[in-house]
Amino acid sequence: MSPESLSRGEQTRNAILQAAHDLFVEQGYHGTSMRQIASQAGIALGGLYNHFPSKEAVFEAVFFAYHPYHEVLPYIQQAQGRTVEEVIRDAAQRMVEAVRGRPDFLNLMFIELVEFQSLHAQKLINTFYPVGLEIVGRLMQTEPGQLRPIPPPMLVRSFLGLFFAYFLTELVFATAGPAEFRQDAMSHFVDIYLHGILKPSPETAG
Questions:
Q1: Which helix (H) or strand (E) is 64 found in, with range?
Q2: pTM beyond 0.85, yes or no
Q3: Distance from C-alpha of 59 to C-alpha of 120, rounded to nearest angstrom
């Protein structure tokens, strides 16, 4: 939807979210006041309260508006592959590509975890979960009998864990350590996710 097609109220709300997002990322939650948000959005403080009753309400709206699930979910729904491993590798790579260049997401997640104990993030599970189950169903159909009898909800959770483990370590340690620390990192993460770190025992290998 183009800015010209938005109502004045919608344009003002978008300006508030953009201003709040930038301030939260730069200054943190407690370092940002409602007055600062209003000033950066170019509106009066009373106008801000006409749209949002509190700073937490502003943050919740920012969190949902700027969460990368908007891009991630369509990406992973398009994951392709002839085998379970190919589908998982493609889905994982698509998730990474969707959030690449979004360091602001980590800032927002830290605020969400520290200040709100994941209160708002928990509301997204109803959005993520059906898509995750859809992918698990596709994996079962791709190579019937290849998956261990792990409950589908745990498969969904573990896949999200794979993504966050990679994403957080990528942002925190992107420039640290030897080159081997970063080389083909996602490929190794997926390999460990699929096969673990232990070699097959002689009994299972035979």
A1: helix 55-66
A2: no
A3: 9
Q: Give the CA diameter of the chain.
A: 73
pLDDT in the model for residue 125? 83
pLDDT band at 204; cut points 50, 70, 90: low
Asked if residue 99 lies in contact with residue 76, where contact means CB atoms within 8 angstroms, the answer is no
Please give the class, per CATH, of domain 67-205.
mainly alpha
Q: Evaluate if residue 149 carries a pLDDT over 60.
A: yes
CA distance 32 to 24: 6
Nearest to 20 by CA among 46, 47, 48: 48
- CATH code 1.10.10.60 for 3-59: yes
Coil, helix or strand at residue 124: helix
Tokens of 166: 């990679």
| pLDDT tens digits along 50-105 | 999 999 999 999 999 998 887 788 888 888 899 999 999 998 888 888 777 787 88
Query: Which residues 6+ apart lie within 8 Å of 148 measured at CB?
Result: none
DSSP letter at 6?
Answer: S
Domain ranges of the chain: 3-59, 67-205
